[in-house]
Write a structure and sequence with these properties.
This protein is an alpha+beta fold. Helix content is 36%, strand content 27%. Helix 5 packs across helix 7.
Length: 269
């Protein structure tokens, strides 16, 4: 079932946006007509991979990522050797060759995973482990596979946001079959990008904005508003405390909307 979520700029504007934005000068509209504090259209298509325990296709603007969860009835060797109780959650991430305007060769053709993919899949794993009580998971591994079908900025944030939905669907199925006695989900997790482009803070950058951003920041947060990870870089410029506060404020507004969209997707089944 598909669940569509469209960000409402009026609703977002009424949220507690940072004061730095209120004082900002008026700029030209973004290329797709969005306001600075507006997300791209978002849709989840659940159960897209019938052999996965849980799966969703997240369509976020023109970025599309399939997130699938499969279960392995074992844990990593290091957990066995160290006698660590519970289970494990890990992730793999890949951009399919046709996901970008120019063909991206598969990592297997180079004989190794590229550094960017490795960084992103580790980030996804950390984010999803923060959402799960590993002891309640029991002696099993949840593999989260994220495959980018189309990239237009924000593939890592889409992968994290979609992975939580796939993970929640997988644990729901494990509960239904009796494989788990209680839910291991502790909290919802979502991620969003923010940045400074042409001197103004923007939420949810597409590729054109991301590629020219002076400052780029990815936020990964829980439903309770706690940070899991911040990845911020001055790409072409430095940034001030005030600008950082503005970016964090924008990100929190967007994350509230994303968490609501995740919940709606899970309620839809």
């Amino acid at each position: 079932m598909a669940t569509t979520f469209n960000s409402n700029s009026a609703d977002l504007a009424s949220a507690q946006a940072p004061e730095a934005l209120d004082a900002a000068p008026v700029y030209r509209p973004r290329s797709d007509g969005r306001q600075p504090q507006q997300l791209r259209p978002l849709r989840f298509r659940n159960h897209i991979a019938p052999h996965a325990t849980g799966s969703t296709l997240i369509e976020w603007g023109c970025t599309r990522v399939i997130c699938g969860v499969t279960v392995e009835a074992t844990v990593p060797r290091w957990m066995k050797e160290q006698g660590v109780a519970g289970g494990w959650v890990t992730a793999e991430y890949a951009m399919l060759p046709y996901s970008t305007t120019q063909r991206k060769p598969r990592d297997i053709t180079r004989g190794k995973l590229d550094g960017r993919s490795q960084e992103i899949q580790r980030l996804i794993g950390r984010a999803m482990r923060a959402s799960v009580d590993l002891e309640k998971l029991g002696p099993r591994t949840l593999w989260i596979d994220c495959d980018v079908l189309q990239a237009d900025g924000g593939t890592r944030t889409a992968a994290i946001t979609g992975s939580y939905v796939a993970l929640a669907l997988a644990t729901r199925r494990l509960l239904a079959t009796g494989a788990l006695p209680e839910s291991p989900i502790r909290t919802a997790v979502a991620a969003v990008s923010v940045g400074i482009v042409a001197g103004r803070p923007l939420l949810d950058l597409d590729y054109a904005e991301d590629s020219t951003a002076e400052v780029d920041l990815n936020l990964v947060m829980t439903r309770e508003g706690e940070f899991i990870e911040l990845q911020g870089t001055g790409e072409h410029a430095t940034f001030t405390d005030a600008q950082l506060s503005a970016l964090l404020g924008l990100g929190k507004v967007g994350l509230k909307e994303l968490l609501a969209a995740q919940q709606a997707a899970l309620q839809a089944g």
